Amino acid sequence: MVRVYASGTPVRSHGTAPQDTEGLPHMPRGRYSLHDPHHHTPLGEEHFHCAPGPSGWRYVSQITAPGGDHAGSVDLTLDELGRPIRLELHAASWQVRGAALDGVTWVRTDPTGGEATEGNVRAHAFTGTSPAFLVAITRLLRLTPASPATRVRLVAFTDPVLAPRTLDQSWALVRSEAHATDNGALTVDEYQVSALDTGEQHSVHISGDVVLSAPGIELEDLETPPSALS
Q1: Disordered: where is this region (predicted)?
Q2: Distance CA 171, CA 177 (A)
């Protein structure tokens, strides 16, 4: 059994490390609970698995509504530099496919499939409600505690219709601490994220390729330890 600590709260994980199809040592699998960061209204759960590979990192998840109905999915692949080379989102029958191309480029398709709108912004990456995007930003920025706060421009896809919105954030790695677990020391990174349009700040706790806690996100279950991303 592994205990993962986020802000002093243990999250239990269990089971043996599975082998994925590419022979990687293990593929973290788990479940996040999602809620409104301001009103704490439950928004559902995200069941995920992720793993580093020869060319980068991939995250796949299925999202369920509070009642248990299927609500969407996320499929994100990063290259070795943390750039999004493939993104596919589904929510409320809307679909987005995107990648890093001349900034970031995407195609958004309506539920009927009859209308597709292409977009392009001189931005660094994508973001949204999925914890996958938080890990992706840290892989792109590769901050250290000595790094200055770094500005990043993002295209956010907002639920429930995946409407695109460009925003600017500032990220800083506040501290990196080792916590004792049943499988040895686990490094937890605490980031401070600032919205540059409003000045609002919040903290994000990440270990490897798993988000331990963030506004609107809580890690509820983890079957295997996070992967250590280089």
Answers
A1: 1-29
A2: 18
Joined together, the tokens standing for residue 13 give 């994980």
Residue 109 half-sphere exposure, CB side, CA atoms within 13 Å? 12
Which value, to the nearest 10 degrees, does the dihedral of the CA atoms of residues 47, 126, 159, 72 take?
Answer: -30
Q: Which residues of 86-116 are buried (b: 16+ CB within 10 A; e: fewer)?
A: ebebbbeebbbebbbeeebbbebbeeeeeee
Contacts of 25 (CB under 8 A, 6+ apart): 17, 19
- Preceding peptide of 160 cis, ω within 30°: yes
pLDDT tens column, 123-162: 999 999 999 999 999 999 999 999 999 999 999 999 889 9
pLDDT band at 26, cuts 50/70/90?
A: low
Burial annotation 57-70 (CB, 10 A radius, 16+ → b, else e): bbbbbebbeeeeee
Q: What's the pTM?
A: 0.88
Two tokens, residue 33: 């609970």
Per residue in 6-19, is it b (16+ CB within 10 Å) or e — as a string? beeeebebeeeeee
Rg of the chain in Å (alpha carbons): 17
Q: Which two tokens stand for residue 41?
A: 């209204």
Q: How much is the mean pLDDT over the chain?
A: 88
Q: What is the per-residue pLDDT for 221?
A: 95
